[in-house]
Design brief:
Rossmann fold, Lambda_DNA-bd_dom_sf, Transcriptional regulator, LacI family, 44% helix, elongated, HTH_LacI, 339 residues, repressor, 12 helices
Length: 339
């Protein structure tokens, strides 16, 4: 059976109050010798505090919920690692929920986490979360009165707490890199058009083209779903059109682009240059290492966790929205255009 404070009191011939004061490190006039006896006995009896009782007293469980859209995507597994590390460092527990990019599961998991009395939620909404779906999640979190921080994806709403990348800048940098290599016909594999992060990357792409006095060509744009199959489908759809480079809006789709190009007997970068977005760890160890836009995923997870803990503890936030800067990582998948 679980060891209680009463068991330790009986073992040491001390009062329950004395044992409780020592174990909870409360100010008292208890002697150092008695404190050492209590702590030694507690260790020998494998005493663990009853967290439910502690949470009832403190009205806090020191537990955070993390909702991610697809844990198979290394972006989210790396994000979860950064969040877990920050939680452990601060003595918090993390509950991970994977929605498999299903909005209805977003709703279900918000309710599940609320039933488990989490103190706050870090929320990466599912890919099928259009504005209407997002408002449903946003309103539910507000009704349940649970502090939350959005990570990466969001929509304009009143007073949100968000941690994300400057995706306009990221899209611009990726396209600018290809332009500097001499490419002028650059195809794009985007995320869903209703997601702000995908629209921002496309905005950056258009901005770079405009600066280079290149007319935007709608026929070179393929709307994907941020998964590998989207990259394969994009190559099939674009095949026969004139392009010398492809900008995939995440690394998972870039992997699909690799596979699709290989099926059409095209080589990276000899025939087609490819640039991705995210810089998940697999991108560096591919046969042709992927040039990509780096998101500091671990740092974003840490920042989101710190922001949420501050909100839970009613500490003032320096800023509600934290925006990280992208970084161009040049590897072997992009090369100078050859006529």
């Amino acid at each position: 059976m679980r060891t209680t404070i009463k068991d330790i009191a009986a073992k040491t011939n001390l009062s329950v109050t004395t044992v409780s004061l020592v174990l909870n490190n409360k100010p008292s006039k208890i002697s150092q010798k008695t404190k050492e006896l209590v702590l030694k006995t507690a260790k020998e009896m494998h005493y663990r505090p009853n967290q439910l009782a502690v949470s009832l007293i403190k009205k806090r469980t020191k537990t955070i919920g993390l909702i991610v859209s697809d844990i198979r995507n290394n972006f989210f597994s790396s994000l979860a690692k950064g969040i877990e590390d920050e939680c452990r460092k601060n003595g918090w527990t993390l509950i991970l929920c994977n929605t498999s990019d299903n909005h209805q599961r977003d709703i279900e998991y918000i309710n599940v986490l609320a039933s488990k009395s989490v103190d706050g939620i870090l929320y990466c909404m599912s890919i099928d979360s259009n504005l209407e779906n997002f408002k449903q999640s946003y309103d539910l979190l507000g009704t349940l009165n649970i502090p939350f921080v959005m990570i990466d994806r969001s929509y304009p709403v009143p007073n949100p707490a968000i941690v994300r990348l400057d995706h306009i800048r990221g899209g611009y940098m990726a396209t600018r890199h290809l332009l500097e290599l001499g490419h002028r016909q650059i195809a794009c594999v985007t995320g869903p058009n209703y997601l702000e992060d995908s629209r921002d990357r496309l905005h950056g792409y258009k901005k770079a083209l405009d600066e280079a006095h290149i007319t935007f060509d709608e026929s070179l744009i393929f709307e994907g779903g941020y998964d590998m199959n989207s990259g394969i489908a994009a190559v099939d759809a674009l095949f026969g059109k004139k392009f010398t480079a492809i900008f995939a809006f995440n690394d998972m789709m870039a992997y699909g682009v690799y596979k699709g190009l290989k099926a059409h007997e095209l080589h990276v970068p000899a025939d087609i240059s490819v640039i991705g977005y995210d810089d998940i760890f697999l991108s560096e160890i591919l046969e042709v290492p992927l040039t990509t836009i780096k998101q500091p995923i671990g740092l974003m997870g840490c920042a989101a966790t710190k922001k949420l803990i501050a909100m839970i503890e009613d500490k003032p936030l320096a800023e509600k929205t934290t925006i990280f800067e992208p970084e161009l990582i040049v590897r072997k998948s992009t090369a100078a255009y050859k006529n």
